[in-house]
């Protein structure tokens, strides 16, 4: 009893356990380090978490589904409770999915949770990516994490599609048929790749078990590895934060992981879980029993992929037929290849964008304070243009349903999407840039003149004026703490000559960043205040600071 | 045999052979299709006369005084009572306006008037009759067999559970969930608007009954998974998750980051 070397004996049961653990693992250092990690609190910073939590739900529910799902394409005669299919010859994969839906207790609920969580995973991932892009949170030092995020969206799309294809119902088979077509359209090697994937001519009897291995083992493993790296980088780089008094490039203002952020995050997981469970218990998703077994001949009206594959389907639907042509008697199916080309182009541009932006502005600094989207009009406009381009392709996949519900002609829908595919992004770019510049000028106006109060006063000499209420210093800081991009003219290289690439850089920078609004400077603010004091407001030039 | 062998190169042999062949195919055709051909005697002479009056005052503008058709509407000779019953009692005829497709609207004629017009049209030439109750009884049908037929023949326009879909140039395949058994049968039999005809050689009356049974069953069985979102598949689900799922998510994030006031 008295031989104990401990200087302090824990007084509580929790303390005893903690002391026991600490003596054997020395975990307190890690807990102290990680527990003091600070995360800023803003709703838009929590969207990536939603993707993470959806992924956890996917792993949990997916594991449940593997206990019953049979990834095999042997033929059986259905004899279950869904009468419209009784006596029909179907595959084991489809039969076991029907069994999960109608016979396994809670099976349909878990299946729907799995499917809704997959849709939410990709949606949350997408708006998280949009948030990161529009706030410039991809800039140095976070470029690698941005690339990991793009790769995550690609692998997530693959994981989703392989899952969509597993039940072997008519819808999933139609989807696979399109994949088969995409593969076969690749010049020279297309047929070989398709035969390699399907184990012979489509559909064969191998594809479900192959997709199953991809869907439950390889792709989730890749996703987990990438998510791990993504989160590790968040910890290494620390989280970005909005401009605000006290927020600098060197600190992070927010809540510590322990106890606040961990508690909030844990609660957030359960809220997301509850949301997915709520949706899954009330709304049907992927009613595979409606579709019947896969058979290569029928294709139902309204056959679409899950939303995140929709843009690929949309490209196929809106591309004109003349894009397929023959060279020396060999067909070149550019109308089909183009889907793969556009998707890869889109992802590639997204991946390299951080470097393009840094190169154009010759900006090699670290950025830990994120931009309000309006404060980088060109980036925001390009982002909106890309989003519009994506949305046009995406909507293209649902042209038939749009036609039915809005009493349009299906043909006209295709023409409209073709036109928007070309001009939509340009319109979006110019409109967004002008809107951003206008919003910046509005901010300037607000900082210089304060809030309108609606109180009209009459001055002794008879003039009427509206009284303006000055901004609080906090507000003024938030509205002025940004930097307008600096356009650097073409610089000579080491040999004293201006290279062609450098000239191109300067031209691009000039085009993209020439129109800009500078933040209000102290001198301007003082001048405005002096004006206010003299009560001769409106005498100075409102357009000061707008460079053209 | 000798007699036949001696004359088989006779100049008239070909003509005789053709005649025999035509008689056989024609006879067999009428034998197979005869059972659904409208028998004008189902309708009394006064019905037909009344039907003609209704036709002349309501339909003849487009279909011609003797239903022979015009630039504005097809000939109705031989379309049968089933076509009249379908078009008139679903409100598609008289046409509301010219367009890609006749619109469904409340029926403009009573059942009796519809039957009178059907009788008049049936009297002009043989065509499919209004189906017997026997073929509309879904208790006798096989929904699994009907489902297979539906997926092969109907789903490409009407969607796998008959939720409807788009056709070219503003035409569309309507939703089938609220269509009566009789109208489903008549639609298959007569191919209204842009629909192909599935005659009895194509889909037998039993098969049509199976199809009807399938449509009824999938549209009336309560959904196992909750609200069906129109049974439209992934587009409706994608819209839902973006507009309701993500809205819920953003709501939760705003709540969690709200500062105590």
Architecture blueprint of SSEs:
The complex is a heterodimer of chains A (548) and B (261).
Chain A (H helix, E strand, L loop, with lengths): L12 H13 L2 H8 L2 E2 L7 H20 L8 E3 L11 E3 H11 L4 H28 L8 H22 L5 H15 L5 H9 L8 H31 L3 E2 L12 E2 H26 L5 H4 L18 H9 L5 E4 L2 E4 H28 L7 E2 L6 H20 L2 H7 L4 H40 L1 E8 L5 E6 L3 H8 L19 H14 L2 E2 L4 H13 L11 E2 L1
Parallel strand pairs in A: 4-8
Antiparallel strand pairs in A: 1-5, 2-3, 6-7, 9-10, 11-12
Helix pairs in contact in A: 3-5, 3-10, 4-5, 5-6, 5-10, 6-9, 6-13, 7-8, 12-13, 12-14, 14-16, 15-16
Chain B lengths: L1 H6 L5 H21 L11 H14 L1 H4 L16 H10 L21 H14 L18 H11 L1 H4 L6 E2 L5 E2 L7 H10 L14 H16 L13 H24 L4
Antiparallel strand pairs in B: 1-2
Helix pairs in contact in B: 3-6, 5-6, 5-9, 7-10, 9-10
Which terms would index this structure?
heterodimer; A: 548 residues; mainly alpha; two-stranded antiparallel sheet; two-stranded antiparallel ribbon; 19 helices; 12 strands; 59% helix; globular; disordered C terminus; B: 261 residues; 11 helices; 2 strands; extended
């Amino acid at each position: 009893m008295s031989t104990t070397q401990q200087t302090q004996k824990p007084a509580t049961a929790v303390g005893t356990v903690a002391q026991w653990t600490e003596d054997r693992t020395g975990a307190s250092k890690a807990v102290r380090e990680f527990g003091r990690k600070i995360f800023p609190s803003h709703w838009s910073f929590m969207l990536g978490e939603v993707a993470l939590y959806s992924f956890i739900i996917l792993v949990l529910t997916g594991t449940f589904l593997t206990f019953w799902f049979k990834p095999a394409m042997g033929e059986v005669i259905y004899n279950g409770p869904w009468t419209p299919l009784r006596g029909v010859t179907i595959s084991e994969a489809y039969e076991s999915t029907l069994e999960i839906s109608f016979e396994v207790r809670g099976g349909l609920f878990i299946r729907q949770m799995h499917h809704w969580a997959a849709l939410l995973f990709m949606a949350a991932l997408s708006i998280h990516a949009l948030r990161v892009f529009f706030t410039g949170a991809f800039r140095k030092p976070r470029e690698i994490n941005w690339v990991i995020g793009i790769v995550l969206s690609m692998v997530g799309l693959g994981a989703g599609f392989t899952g969509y294809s597993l039940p072997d119902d008519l819808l999933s088979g139609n989807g696979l048929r399109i994949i088969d077509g995409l593969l076969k359209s690749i010049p020279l090697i297309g047929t070989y790749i398709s035969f390699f994937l399907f184990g012979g001519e489509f559909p064969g009897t191998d594809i479900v078990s192959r997709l199953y291995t991809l869907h439950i083992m390889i792709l989730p493993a890749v996703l987990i590895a990438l998510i791990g790296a993504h989160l590790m980088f968040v910890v290494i780089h620390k989280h970005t934060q909005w401009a605000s008094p006290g927020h600098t490039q060197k600190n992070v203002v927010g809540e510590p992981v322990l106890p606040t952020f961990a508690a909030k995050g844990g609660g957030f997981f359960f809220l997301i879980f509850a949301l997915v469970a709520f949706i899954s218990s009330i709304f049907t998703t992927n009613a595979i029993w409606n579709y019947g077994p896969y058979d290569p001949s029928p294709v139902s009206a309204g056959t679409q992929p899950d939303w995140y594959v929709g843009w690929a389907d949309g490209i196929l639907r809106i591309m004109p037929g003349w894009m397929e042509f023959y060279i020396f008697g060999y067909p070149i199916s550019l109308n089909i290849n183009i889907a793969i080309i556009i998707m890869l182009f889109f992802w590639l541009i997204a991946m390299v964008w951080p470097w393009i932006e840094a190169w154009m502005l010759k900006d090699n600094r670290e950025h830990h304070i994120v931009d309000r989207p309006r404060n980088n009009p060109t980036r925001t406009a390009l982002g909106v243009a890309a989003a519009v381009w994506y949305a046009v392709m995406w909507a293209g996949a649902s042209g038939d349903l749009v036609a039915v519900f809005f009493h349009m002609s299906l043909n006209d829908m295709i023409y409209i999407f073709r036109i928007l595919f070309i001009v939509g992004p340009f319109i979006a770019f110019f409109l967004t840039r002008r809107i951003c510049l206008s919003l910046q000028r509005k901010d300037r106006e607000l900082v210089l003149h304060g809030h309108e109060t609606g109180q009209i006063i009459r001055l002794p000499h008879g003039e009427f004026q509206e009284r303006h209420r000055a901004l609080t210093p906090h507000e003024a800081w938030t509205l002025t703490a940004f930097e307008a991009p600096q356009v650097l003219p073409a610089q000579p290289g080491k040999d004293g000559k201006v290279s062609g690439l450098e000239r191109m850089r300067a031209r691009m920078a000039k085009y993209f960043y020439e129109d800009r609004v500078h933040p209000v400077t102290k001198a301007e603010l003082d001048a405005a205040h002096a004006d206010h004091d003299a009560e001769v407001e409106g005498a100075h030039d409102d357009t000061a600071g707008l460079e053209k | 045999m000798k007699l036949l062998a001696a004359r088989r190169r006779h100049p008239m042999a070909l003509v005789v052979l053709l005649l025999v062949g035509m008689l056989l195919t024609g006879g067999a055709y009428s034998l197979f299709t005869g059972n659904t051909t409208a028998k004008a005697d189902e309708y009394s002479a006064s019905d037909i006369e009344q039907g003609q009056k209704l036709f002349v005052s309501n339909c003849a503008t487009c279909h011609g005084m003797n239903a022979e058709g015009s630039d504005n509407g097809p000939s109705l000779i031989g379309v049968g009572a089933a076509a009249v019953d379908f078009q008139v009692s679903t409100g598609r005829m008289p046409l509301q306006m010219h367009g890609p497709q006749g619109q469904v609207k409340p029926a403009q004629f009573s059942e009796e008037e519809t039957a009178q017009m059907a009788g008049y049209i049936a009297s002009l030439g043989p065509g499919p009759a209004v189906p017997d109750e026997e073929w509309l009884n879904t208790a006798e049908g096989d929904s699994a067999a009907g489902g297979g037929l539906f997926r092969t023949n109907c789903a490409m326009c009407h969607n796998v559970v008959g939720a409807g879909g788009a056709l070219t140039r503003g035409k569309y395949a309507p939703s089938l969930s609220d269509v009566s058994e009789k109208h489903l049968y008549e639609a298959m039999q007569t191919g209204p608007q842009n629909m192909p005809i599935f005659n009895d050689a194509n889909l037998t009356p039993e098969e049509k009954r199976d199809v009807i049974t399938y449509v009824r069953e999938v549209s009336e069985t309560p959904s196992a998974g909750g609200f069906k979102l129109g049974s439209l598949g992934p587009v409706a689900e994608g819209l839902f998750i973006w507009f309701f799922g993500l809205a819920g998510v953003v709501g939760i994030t705003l709540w969690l980051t709200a500062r105590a006031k």
